Fold Palmitoyltransferase.
Amino acid sequence: RKIKEPRQIAPSLISICTHNSSPMETPHTKKRRVKRKWQVFPGRNKFYCDGRIMMAKQTGVFYLTVVLILVTSGLFFAFDCPFLASNLSPAIPAIGGVLFLFVMGMLLRASFSDPGVLPRATPDEAADVERQIANGAGGPGYRPPPRTREVVINGQTVKLKYCFTCKIFRPPRASHCSLCDNCVERFDHHCPWVGNCVGKRNYRFFYLFILSLSFLTIFIFAFVITHVILSDRGSGGLWMLSWKQCSAFLHWCTVLEVVVCFFSVWSIVGLSGFHTYLISSNQTTNEDIKGAWSSKRGKDNYNPYSSGSILTNCCTALCGPLPPSLIDRRGFVEPDSAQPMAQSNGTNTCPLTQLQSHMVKSVE
């Protein structure tokens, strides 16, 4: 009998098999597969600068806010400040510049930061909770109502609601934002003007933004009118001028400033006053709208988070330590470990190697 020579296997195929069967990967390959947590974040947020900036998905109104502030302030500094500095005081442009920088700083700080998003449950934790829900179900297709837990805070009973999206029991004062699809700690509201949720970690910056914007709007409006009045001296009165004279005297940029400031100041000042009331009573917009601590719900219903002092409540909201972010959005996600192939005697084998061994042993 003749013994057949084993067929030669291409070296390229053997090298491919050897590479695939190796449990170790080169550092370059491993580095390419590593992702940061913001890249696989389950919410509807957008991230910039490698996860350092976190915003809501809808940011169109935020850009409108930035444009309105920049255009109005730019026109004021370009057309009104030179006249006011030479005729009244050079401190006017300086004060306006400080207010403008503070407003922009607080706006960007409130818009780009994590509002206090709560991390979702891990797959193991979620599976355990789902198993408990399934065991308590009354039948196939039955969905139990949202469960709650009760805790006592300063003598007041507070209910903790279960979030079926994040698979967690929300802490007190937390709520799920339907636009960002996240549970936010001390949720106040979702503000499209800043392009982000307003919660525990950025509420103070939001409040300082609207408060300083109120001062800036009043400041620009008052000194634009002052510019108009001072320039009108000796002309027989502004209202006595013809339309052509008014067009030559009042530049269209000044008119635009007056219109924008006039229609903005009422809403901005009103919003600042409303949030000043909320801070002084240690409430959130969400709680105030729902009437969570209203006396109509019962005589014994009261706000357990208020200290009873306006000064203490303001210091707690504005001067307390800033809590750290809980989602670690710039952390690294561990890559999934490679699944071993079929094993025979405890070692990884390759189908191509098995084929070669079988061909060497085959005889006729």
